Amino acid sequence: MKTDPQLASLLLERLDGSKAQVQADLIVGCDGAFSAVRKQFLRRTRFNYSQTYIPHGYMELTMPPDNGEFAMKPNYLHIWPRNTFMMIALPNLNKTFTCTLFMPFEDFEKITTGDKVIEFFQNYFPDAIPLIGDDTLKRDYFRLPAQAMVSVKCSPYHIDDKCVLMGDAAHAVVPFYGQGMNAGFEDCIVFDEILDQFNEDFCAVLPEFSRVRVPDDHAIADLAMYNYVEMRAHVNSKWFLFRKHVDNLLHLIMPKTIIPLYTMVTFSRTRYHKAVERWHWQEKVINRGLVLGAAVAACGGVYLLVKNPPNISKLVIRTEEIWSMLSALPE
Ligand SMILES: Cc1cc2nc3c(=O)[nH]c(=O)nc-3n(C[C@H](O)[C@H](O)[C@H](O)COP(=O)(O)OP(=O)(O)OC[C@H]3O[C@@H](n4cnc5c(N)ncnc54)[C@H](O)[C@@H]3O)c2cc1C
After folding, report:
1. Of ligand 1's atoms, which has the minimum distance to the CA of residue 167?
2. In this protein, which residues make up the domain named FAD-binding (predicted)?
3. Which of 17, 55, 187, 235 is the most exposed place for a label (fewest CB within 10 A)?
4. Is domain 2-47+156-234 classified as CATH 3.30.160.20?
5. CB of 189 closer than 6 A to ligand 1?
6. Where do the DSSP E strands lie in 158-200?
7. Domain spans of the chain?
8. Is residue 81 in contact with ligand 1, taking CB distance under 6 Å?
9. How many angstroms does the Cα of residue 228 sit away from the middle of ligand 1?
């Protein structure tokens, strides 16, 4: 297929090899991360474009139902975080789970035989082996090579009043926030709202769509990259888990003031870049609150000690007793 976005003309090639030249009022380029329409934008000046391949690839494995039921609890995102790699599992309507293994390409390449697959799973995901099954695991691992993941940012999304990019064509993101498809759907909603706002005048609608949508799509691309680290490494940290509990507790007490980032991004129409701004503000306030709380607790402790000083002579005697007990121990 060839496009001339400036003229809104398309040369289409049908499955039987025949070709058709089509003249459109508007071309909507929603042809995915490797968009042919977007390629035509690259020939123009003042079109910004960047793409980043992450060092990890992904491979999908199927966990079958167990006696006709889900093999694990279905209403959860299951994560096996292993710092430099991870596996996640999401439920499907047919009671299977799709397990996705994210790992650096060089680690995928080290596993060359069925026995090495089982050995790898025994080391890192032993509980998943009986749920997926030895034979399925050995077979599915070699069904397809690990796939690459790319993050694409570009701007603007339009050319004149003739062509506009949407979905992965405009903003392919790494899949760690579960928002790639959602961001594409939101492109459609926002475009529809702007169409109404400007009485379907493409001359005004297309630049406005780029103006409104680019900062949000860039924000979700950055958040997805951030989650790439959070899911495989941060979730192992006690401080991270403590902070999540604090966030959830504060959200329970003040649901309109403190809203966890994931809630804002996933369950609301808060614009992605606004969600990020608010998240930074909340982080600052909560961290300062925790430091202040710790300082107040420390001062309170010191005050109580000063007000009710412990009997030093008793402490000294106790220490001396412990010391003589320790000295009496055989070497
Ligand atoms: C492992 C993984 C997990 C994901 N998980 C989630 C998730 O949990 N939640 C979520 O929201 N998103 C998720 N995503 C992202 C989601 O899959 C994509 O964001 C979404 O599919 C993009 O939709 P799209 O229509 O823009 O592009 P695509 O789905 O890529 O569709 C593009 C279409 O254009 C067609 N096309 C391409 N080139 C041409 C051409 N030259 N001529 C004619 N047709 C063409 C293609 O055949 C295809 O049908 C995930 C992605 C991956 C890789």
Report:
1. 26
2. 11-188
3. 17
4. no
5. no
6. 158-159, 163-165
7. 2-47+156-234, 52-148, 238-331
8. no
9. 19
Residue 132 contacts residue 152 (beta carbons within 8 Å): no
The model's pLDDT over 241-290, given as tens digits with 9 standing for 90+, comes to 898 999 999 999 999 999 999 999 999 999 999 999 999 999 999 999 99
243: CA distance to ligand 1 center in Å?
34
Q: What is the ipTM of this complex?
A: 0.97
Q: Is the C-beta atom of 178 inside 6 A of ligand 1?
A: yes
Percent of the chain with pLDDT over 90: 81
Token pair belonging to 174:
């790494």
- Decide whether any atom of ligand 1 lies within 6 Å of the 36 Cβ: yes
52 Cα–ligand 1 center, Å: 17
Asked if residue 319 has pLDDT above 80, the reply is no
Confidence of residue 38 (pLDDT cuts 50, 70, 90): very high
Residue 40, ligand 1, Cβ within 6 A: no
Q: In what order do the strands lie in the sheet with 2-4?
A: 2-4, 9-13, 19-23
Residues 107-119 have a mean pLDDT of: 97
In the chain, % helix, strand, coil (3-state, to 5) comes to 50, 20, 30
